[in-house]
Amino acid sequence: MGYSNSNMNGVGYPFMKLIIEARESYALFQHHDGVTGTAKKHVMADYGQRMSKSINDLQSVMSQLSHFLLTPNKAFYDSSSNKRNELWFEFSEKADGGFKSLFSQRVLDTHGYEKGLIAFFNSHARARSEVVTLRITNPNIRLYTLNFVEGDEDEEEVPFQISPIFDDTHEILNGEFLLSFVVEVPALALKAYYFNELRAEEGTNP
Fold first, then answer.
1. What are the start-end ranges of the H helices in 72-146?
2. In this protein, which residues make up the domain named Glycoside hydrolase family 38 central (predicted)?
3. From residue 60, how far is each of 115, 169, 171 by CA, in Å?
4. Mind giving me the DSSP string for 35-55?
5. CB–CB of 68/62 below 8 Å?
6. pLDDT in tens, 120-134
């Protein structure tokens, strides 16, 4: 049903090829060489590259479909081919390629007064409330959600905590911080949180 609905709205079919290729790669990973660790180095490298590509492709699919689902008026959604190549969202973890270090945590750039968006998806059939921690570049931000009341946007501030990051020598990193806050997402739903840098007249976060 989900495929049929998305295909009807013009956003589903172009991504089916990527999903099928990722599924085929996943089937390859179940080969006994991959499971038992007896594969030769060049085979492991090929597995890693295929896995990295599959992850990036699926993240692209999830980015596009999340953007569609978060669009208020889906009847006028622009699903033209040039829009399908845009990366609407970046993920907190990115696939770097290869097989030695597949993932690295992404640092969220929180500079700028323009509204930024952080989206969370709850795949469970029940509501979830959890503390989430992200790496950011600027601690002087405001964090809020938007509630639509009679066609107007009503901002609701979200409390959060800023923590320092220490390197291997126990020195505080400059330019990177930890942002922690409670995320509440209904069952099988997407939830958007917004942020922007504090202006000079708004002060700074302690």
1. 81-84
2. 17-65
3. 22, 36, 36
4. HHT---HHHHHHHHHHHHHHH
5. no
6. 989 899 999 999 999
Predicted local confidence at residue 43, as pLDDT: 76
Counting every residue written for the chain, the total comes to 206
Output the pLDDT for position 2: 46
Among all chains, which residue has been given the structure tokens 């090929």?
Answer: 46
Give the separation between CA 118 and CA 92, rounded to whole angstroms: 10
24-49, pLDDT tens digit by residue?
888 877 776 666 666 677 777 777 78
Q: Which residues contact 58 (CB under 8 A, 6 or more apart)?
A: 18, 19, 22
Both structure tokens of 54: 């599959």
How deeply is 78 buried, as exposed, middle or buried, from its count of CB atoms within 10 A (0-12, 13-18, 19+)?
exposed
* CA 61 to each of CA 12, 49, 66: distance values in angstroms, whole numbers, following the listed order: 9, 18, 8
**Domains of the chain as residue ranges with CATH:** 2-95 (1.20.1270.50), 107-202 (2.60.40.1180)
User: What span, in angstroms and rounded, lies between the C-alpha atoms of 126 and 147?
Assistant: 21
Residue 187 has pLDDT above 90, yes or no: yes
